[in-house]
Amino acid sequence: MPSTAVHISEPLKVWDKLTLVVGEGVHSGVYMARIEDIINGGIVITEPEFVRGQSLLRDGIDIIVQIVRKDAVYQFVSQIRRLQTPGRRTVVLTPPCEYRRVQRRMFVRIDLCKRIEYAVLSSDYAWHGWPNGLRWYESRTFDVSAGGLLIEITPDSVKNEDVLAVRIPWFDSLELPQPVAAVCRRVSVYEEKPVAGVQFILADDLNTFFPDLNVKVLPLSMRGFDTRAQNRLSQCIFHEQIELRRKGLL
Predict the structure, then answer these.
(1) 2 sits in which H/E element
(2) Which of these, 192, 184, 125, lies nearest to 157 by C-alpha position?
(3) Burial 33-52 (b: 16+ CB within 10 A, else e)
(4) pLDDT for res 1
(5) Of 2, 24, 50, 111, which has the most beta carbons under 10 Å away?
(6) Along the 250 residues of the chain, how does pLDDT read in single tens digits?
(7) At 14, which CATH number?
(8) Could you tell me the residue range of the domain that residue 133 belongs to?
């Protein structure tokens, strides 16, 4: 969660990468942009590029702007304005009134190769027979964060917005529930291998992804992966990162 207002450790500068967040929760929309110029009336940015989510970026509404610095992630509230100038359209953010520091640990992502299995969950899956009837694919992670995983996938087995069940044996040693539910946010290629970026679905968000289902029929492990479990995973990743740095591996 954000803390009280703070001073940013390094001022904004041209070509800084910004994350623009519209709305809250699983319905939020995420966009990326870079700073083109800093003027008296605000911050000129490149045309925002859609990353994921459902909320649209519109002029005049409050958005959260996040920027990564070495010590932390900072954010401020802004509004976007599109101005028609000779020869082009300029996109401007209103300047920050104050910065807030976001917990860095939730953004920590480390390269970690762990064995997993995943299965795509169809909307008509018969949950009373869990886990029978699912096609499980053996896989591995490329990196891990408290928010999700980058995993290798079997070609054409997963597409954007697919909901998955993910078995993560590593979680047993961390005393975390598994299998967990996740949603595919991006399919891409990494190190010449097909990969998917998947976001963990927290217990409070299960109704959003299973709207026609009584979530009580879902496996206990999926219903048990809540914010407390995510915070525990965040702490484990944070300490793993410290250990890797101590060994000179990071």
Answers:
(1) none
(2) 184
(3) bebbebeeebbbbeebeeee
(4) 43
(5) 2
(6) 445 678 888 899 999 989 898 987 656 788 889 999 999 889 999 999 987 777 899 999 999 998 877 667 788 999 999 988 788 889 999 999 999 887 554 556 788 899 999 999 998 999 999 999 999 999 999 989 888 999 999 999 999 999 999 999 999 998 999 999 999 988 988 888 999 999 999 998 899 899 888 899 999 999 999 988 887 888 788 777 667 666 666 5
(7) 2.30.110.10
(8) 109-246
Residue 223: closest CA among 240, 237, 236, 210: 210
Half-sphere exposure of 226 (CA within 13 A, CB side): 5
Same domain, 119 and 212: yes
3-state secondary structure 219-236: CHHHHHCCHHHHHHHHHH
DSSP state of 180: E
Are 131 and 241 contained in the same domain?
yes
- CA-closest candidate to residue 62, choices 48, 75, 79, 76: 79
List the beta bridge partners of residue 142: none
Torsion of CA 116, 152, 54, 30, to 10 degrees: 110
Tokens describing residue 75:
């954010």
pTM of the prediction? 0.61
Q: Are residues 124 and 230 in the same domain?
A: yes
Please give the backbone phi and psi of residue 116, each rounded to the nearest 5 degrees, phi first: -140, 175
